[in-house]
Amino acid sequence: MNFKKARENMINEQIIKRGIKDERVLNAIADIPRENFVLKQNEKDAYLDCPLPIGMGQTISQPYMVALMTQCLSLGGSEYILEIGTGSGYQTAILSKLTTRVYTVERFKVLSDRAREKFNDLDLKNIETIVGDGSQGLEKYSPYDAIMVTAGAEQIPKKLIEQLKENGKIIIPVGSSYFQELLLGKKIENKLKVKNYGGCVFVPLVGRYGWVE
Ligand code: SAH
């Protein structure tokens, strides 16, 4: 299997054709081997147009969704980012190529540990992995320039809004536990101005300011 070719096809057919234009985002996606972040038995499916299982009942997001969410944050390269829901670490790796520092929180230690190994393999040094309940954010390094949540919430957790800088952006799927809308919020004068990017399906954000287990 020629992964490089599969990656090029994915970028052209699934991502550019659907309207993703940010060159930095496209380059970051071209740089990260998605096959590293799926289960060994799914390697050949790594570039399909869908999410895939990664263990613990969780999934790696569809490539287009990763591209769309990343583009929404319009990263310039100097941001401090909080990501909630490390999962496979694929989205984290893309973010790490586009900015200064990424703090990524995952509730399952086994997923967090596995993701950290992948970051080491690819020599991505600007990522800090944290195990915990990200629905409460991560007070320690706040406030953040941008927050990305890759699990679905019933509403935008207030702790996350608090931990966002003025003019900072948060991208998060909000809705029921089986269907959400992708919301981009910009914090202006302590309030969020929200734009809706349409329907999506994510695993639930489980935690104090998310769904109950
Ligand atoms: N961006 C990831 C998506 C993983 S799925 C990828 O592409 O691989 C979402 C992840 O969010 C799951 O791993 C799940 O365990 C995690 N999660 C759910 N609720 C969480 C919470 N409150 N804090 C941290 N992680 C959470």
How would you describe what is shown here?
This protein is α/β, with parallel strands linked by helices and 213 residues long. The longest helix is centred in the N-terminal third of the chain and has 14 residues, at 3-16. Strand 4, helix 5 and strand 5 form a beta-alpha-beta unit. 28% of the residues lie in helices and 28% in strands. The radius of gyration is 16 Å and the shape is globular. The chain has helices spanning 3-16, 23-31, 63-72, 90-98, 109-121, 158-162; strands at residues 52-55, 58-60, 80-84, 101-106, 127-131, 144-149, 164-175, 180-188, 191-200. 42% of the residues are buried. Strands 5-4-3-6-7-8-9 form a 7-stranded mixed β-sheet. Strands 1-2 form a two-stranded antiparallel sheet. Bound molecules: S-adenosyl-L-homocysteine.
Q: What's the helix and strand layout?
A:
Layout: H1 3-16, H2 23-31, E1 52-55, E2 58-60, H3 63-72, E3 80-84, H4 90-98, E4 101-106, H5 109-121, E5 127-131, E6 144-149, H6 158-162, E7 164-175, E8 180-188, E9 191-200
Parallel strand pairs: 3-4, 3-6, 4-5, 6-7
Antiparallel strand pairs: 1-2, 7-8, 8-9
S-adenosyl-L-homocysteine (SAH) binds next to strand 2, helix 4 and strand 4.
In short:
This protein has 213 residues and is of the alpha/beta class. The protein has helices at 3-16, 23-31, 63-72, 90-98, 109-121, 158-162, and strands spanning 52-55, 58-60, 80-84, 101-106, 127-131, 144-149, 164-175, 180-188, 191-200.
